[in-house]
């Protein structure tokens, strides 16, 4: 790990990194309620994982005074997160999933899925097109 920021703010914060995990330069990993990264996963450069969501419902109260929600985030085993991926609150990533560069993950990604875009959407499974025939690539 080179120039990686790890933040475990609060008494119950932790970050657990499995065996043989690669974390690229300039990643920001927050484990306020816990962050687990499974073995054999690859995080490219400039990844942000932040398990915090601000509350902003009351327009008469400053957003900073409204607090927020935080929860544990899990990145499964054998995952690949491409460069500049952002993983937000409530967005666990299943085993074997691939997240394309620049994606913003805002909801869970099933195991062995490929997700891309903003917000990230599953476009296929590893080895199969979503709703289509088996892929020759995978």
Sum up the structure in keywords.
138 residues, mainly beta, UDP N-Acetylglucosamine Acyltransferase, domain 1, seven-stranded mixed beta sheet, five-stranded parallel beta sheet, 17 strands, 33% strand
How many β-strands, per DSSP? 17
Write down the secondary-structure element order: EEEEEEEEEEEEEEEEE
Q: Alpha-carbon distance between the termini? A: 28 Å
Query: What is the helical fraction, as a range of percent?
Result: under 10%
What is the fourth-level CATH superfamily?
A: Hexapeptide repeat proteins
How many whole angstroms does the radius of gyration measure? 16 Å
Count of alpha/pi helices: 0
**Which word captures the global form?**
globular
> Overall mean pLDDT score?
90
CATH topology label:
UDP N-Acetylglucosamine Acyltransferase, domain 1
Can you tell me the residue ranges where pLDDT is under 50 for at least 5 consecutive residues?
none
Short synopsis of the structure:
The protein is mainly β and 138 residues long. Helix content is 0%, strand content 33%.
Written description of the protein model:
Strand 15 (113-116) and strand 16 form a beta hairpin. It contains no helices and 17 strands. With 138 residues, the chain is mainly beta. The relative contact order is 0.14. It is 0% helix and 33% strand. The protein has strands at 5-7, 15-17, 22-23, 28-30, 35-37, 42-43, 48-49, 52-54, 68-70, 73-75, 80-81, 86-87, 98-99, 104-105, 113-116, 121-125, 128-129. The strands form 4 sheets. The chain has a 7-stranded mixed sheet, with no helix packed on it. Strands 1-4-7-12-14 form a 5-stranded parallel sheet, with no helix packed on it. It has a 3-stranded parallel sheet with strand order 2-5-10, with no helix packed on it. The chain has a single domain (5-129), classed as Hexapeptide repeat proteins (UDP N-Acetylglucosamine Acyltransferase, domain 1), CATH 2.160.10.10.
């Amino acid at each position: 790990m080179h120039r990686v920021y790890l933040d475990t703010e609060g008494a119950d914060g932790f970050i657990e990194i499995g065996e043989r995990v690669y974390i690229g330069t300039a990643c920001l990993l927050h484990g306020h309620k816990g962050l687990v990264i499974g073995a054999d996963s690859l995080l490219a450069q400039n990844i942000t994982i932040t398990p915090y969501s601000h509350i902003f419902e009351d327009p008469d109260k400053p957003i900073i005074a409204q607090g927020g929600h935080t929860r544990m985030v899990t990145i499964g085993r054998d995952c690949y997160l491409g460069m500049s991926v952002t993983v937000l609150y409530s967005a666990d990533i299943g085993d074997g999933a691939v997240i394309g560069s620049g994606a913003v993950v805002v909801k869970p990604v099933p195991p062995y899925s490929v997700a891309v875009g903003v917000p990230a959407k599953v476009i296929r499974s590893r080895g199969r097109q979503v709703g289509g025939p088996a892929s020759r690539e995978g």
